Amino acid sequence: MGKKLLLVAAIYFGVSFSVAQAWTQRLPPEDFNEMYSLASSGKLGSLQAAAARGLNLNAQNPQGDSGICVAIKQGDILAYNTFIKAGAHIHPPCMNYFSQAELDRFHSRPQVIKYSEYPTSFKPRESKDWAIVAGVGAIIGSIVWVMTLLTQ
Q1: 6-11: average pLDDT
Q2: Does some domain include residue 85?
Q3: Residue 63 within a domain
Q4: pLDDT tens, residue by residue, 69-81
Q5: Quick one: how far is CA 35 from the chain centroid?
Q6: What residues pair up with 66 in beta bridges, in sequence order?
């Protein structure tokens, strides 16, 4: 009985550790276009998770534009709002290439989030990955436990 319990514990630990390791090693988007795609789709959670794993929300494309500037150029309010909520800088260097009239026109749209609603100390919420890993671990542990009961 002791050997079976030790075997079950080893299997449970191995599988749980593998799931946890795979979950926490998800990588941030590989390039600017992928990052912008997340923002323009409104995938704030994915953008925040990528930023927590090292994604630079203020990265620039080959033309020197940050995601905020591209969103303003394209009139993409959802991307702009998503970048602001995720914690991107509101005044990247590329903002200097816009006229004040262009910026005022974009910011006057009612759907555009005002940066003052998200102060500079804004931090993305803590990731809840631990809950998913714990849930998967509990399910795997239960399955292994039932299997050992059935093989006795």
Answers
A1: 69
A2: yes
A3: yes
A4: 999 999 999 999 9
A5: 10
A6: 60
